[in-house]
Amino acid sequence: MRVIIAVVAIILLTIVIVWLIDKFVPRKLKPVINILLWALIIFLGYITFNSVYDEIKFNKLKVERYKVVIDRLVDIRDSQLAYKEVNGEYAGTFDKLISFIENDSIPITQRRDTLVLDVERTRAFGGVETFKTETLIDTLSYYTVRDSIFKGDKRYRDLAKVGVGKEGALFQLQAGKLDDIPVFEASVDKAVVLDGEEKYLIDKEKQAISIAGVKGATVKIGSMEEVNTSGNWGKDLSTKE
Q1: Torsions phi, psi for 108 (to 5 deg)
Q2: Confidence of residue 50 (pLDDT cuts 50, 70, 90)
Q3: N or C terminus: which one in the chain shows less Cβ crowding within 10 Å?
Q4: Rounded to 5°, angle at Cα 107 from 103 and 111
């Protein structure tokens, strides 16, 4: 919109200046005025070009930074799901989550049905043996979260770090329950991810609602307001989903 307004303004300004020159400027001064006019047109054209080019560069940079952030958020989500499988809830701090990844294991189980004697019904039927089906869960083995999710990579130690944008920035992590159902949310403000860029471009990006990009003012995964473990971005931005 800013570009369209700038282009329209240049066209209108040029028309007005040409009319004024033709109407009021003496003939002998017209060459000088024409030179100044061309200089003004070139200057305005340069400003317009820079406005367009800056936005193109910004759009390219934001995609590159979002991909880094999103891949880290996916790691957080996968680690949280493993934590919940063992503990019945999500981790509320990165210290807990990282310690879990490094030290805990998840059982590999197998469910099987078996027939067992139903003592109460057998007694009720005067000793006639009656059987019932029970489901047994056998633990076959264990796997470590570190090896399963991170394949030996030690990047989990930096799980709390955003990794791009503002130096030293960390994700915000929350966990709790919603109607007795465990929920979590990990997020970072877009202004942190896009730190160093023009403020008006960041403000515009924080208002984004397109499903192809990242919706809203933050990049996040999970939610404290609904039972949801998805991220607020389009699938083309993640290399892990």
Answers
A1: -100, 115
A2: low
A3: N
A4: 170
Helix or strand (DSSP H, E) at 69 = helix 30-87
Confidence of residue 49 (pLDDT cuts 50, 70, 90): low
- CA distances for 93 relative to 81, 82, 167, 171, 176, angstroms: 14, 15, 21, 10, 11
> Which residue, 176, 156, 166, 172, is CA-closest to 218?
172
Contact of 98 with 192, CB cutoff 8 Å? no
Burial group, residue 114, by CB count within 10 angstroms (0-12, 13-18, 19+): exposed
Task: Give the pair of three-digit tokens for residue 133.
Answer: 């089906």
The residue behind tokens 């006639």 is 128
Cα 228 from chain centre: 14
DSSP 105-119: EEEEEEEEEEEEE-H
The DSSP result for 122-149, as a single string, is: HHHTTT---EEEEEEEEEEEEEEHHHHH
Domain positions in the chain are 2-54, 55-237
Residues 6+ apart with CB under 8 A from 71: 238, 239, 240
Provide long-range contacts, Cβ within 8 A and 24+ apart, for 92-96: 92/173, 92/174, 92/175, 92/176, 92/184, 93/173, 94/159, 94/160, 94/170, 94/171, 94/173
Residue 128 — very low, low, confident or very high, per pLDDT cuts 50/70/90?
A: confident
Predicted TM-score (pTM) of the model is 0.70
